[in-house]
Amino acid sequence: MSEAVIQPTTSPALLASLDPLLREWLPRQRWFAGKGRPVTGFSLVSATELLPSDARLGLHHLLVRAHQPPAPGTAPRPGDCYQLLIGVREALPPRLAPALIGHVEGGPLAGRTVYDALYDPRPAEVLLEALRTQARIGGLRFERDRRQEIRDGLAARLLTAEQSNSSVVYGDTFILKLLRRIVPGDNPDLEIPLALAREGCARVPAPTAWLLAELGGDAYVLGVLQPFVRGATDGWELALRELAKGEDFTAEARALGRATAEVHTALARALPVVTLGHGQLRHLVDGMVERLAAAAQAVPALRPYEPGLRSAYEALADLAAEGRTWTAQRIHGDLHLGQCLRSPSGQWSLIDFEGEPARPLAERRMPQPTVRDIAGMLRSFDYAAHSVTPPAPGWAAACQAAYCSGYAEAADRDPRTDPVLLRAYETDKAVYEVVYEARHRPDWLPVPLSAVRRLAMSDQL
Known about the structure:
By secondary structure, this protein is α+β, with helices and mostly antiparallel strands. The chain contains twelve helices and 18 strands. The strands form four sheets. It has a seven-stranded antiparallel sheet with strand order 6-7-12-13-10-9-8, with helices on one face. α3 (about 190-200) packs across α5, α6 packs antiparallel against α7 (about 305-320) and α6 packs parallel to α11 (about 420-440). It starts with 11 loop residues before the first helix and ends with a helix.
């Protein structure tokens, strides 16, 4: 892979030929954010040829904006921008059948077959080589930390578990996370691990390389390469396995609480910490109230609990009005068991600092009370407990207590000593979950609704 700048292919005919295929394929992808609304068209943000289309194997890097009618009750806005790696072959071998996008009938790729190239080891290896050599290809910039070695010849494999992005593992040495829904600006999935690496925090794998784009004066983070924790198990899988065996999980929950506190402490050293006074808390509470109102409009099953849930936010606003303040800092932003890895040695790591992708980037980069992460983890224990038959609420309660105790051991403050703030964030998270499950996994809707019932009644206990 040459380090010389290669000019991108930007022919509108390329996107026009792919348009009918992408309209069918894109909404079926797990990471597509506009489910439930038709795609009415595409506009090309950038197109870069990484392998020539007239060869046996072609590879195009595309950033495309998908246009859709606005959701009911929302104002029109520009379509979401997605990162696509389009492979081009005469025909797909059987092993690549799950990657099929379709057969192109016209334009520069007429007669060829296009597919999601990340399923194919050769195109995925092209990306690693570009990162290794710090290539510049059109508007794409492949950058790396020169202090970390990237060997060539590492075999690539796509992780097929459901994710809001796509991840490729290289030889059990590195993992490349490619962001699918792209927005301009400093993405916390790169920004936060880099800041933690500067602090020497071993709880988060330090970025080895990253993929950026510079388009129209805006910078986009497209992907991050990090060391792969070989033999690690994510917290969700581990919790479910122990639940199925009837094993106690409190020691792991306590260790995970300590790991969370260490990350929060390092972030407080690395990035600014602010004080939230009455005005800032009022704005925060107003956002929670607005999200609740929108959720109740979208999910009728939530409406009977709306007054009780609103009381959780009003209690927080009342404390702020009395002069209570809180500190806020950079946090994980979407912490749950699936965002944690336990190595074979027992070490816990936190991964995936992108935050909730549905929220605006500026909001995801704002300082937040650390209890927001803690609330997310408490909700995750509840999810795990409700994923078995019969549900195990006692298991969840024991893990939640152990997690908070572990956090207190490392941070010298127990999140349970601020119950009003914790309840408000647990409520906000449960409301988010209700909307998510109603939209994507209706069979799971009873899980957050059970939490909603409990949280709505908390002010009466």
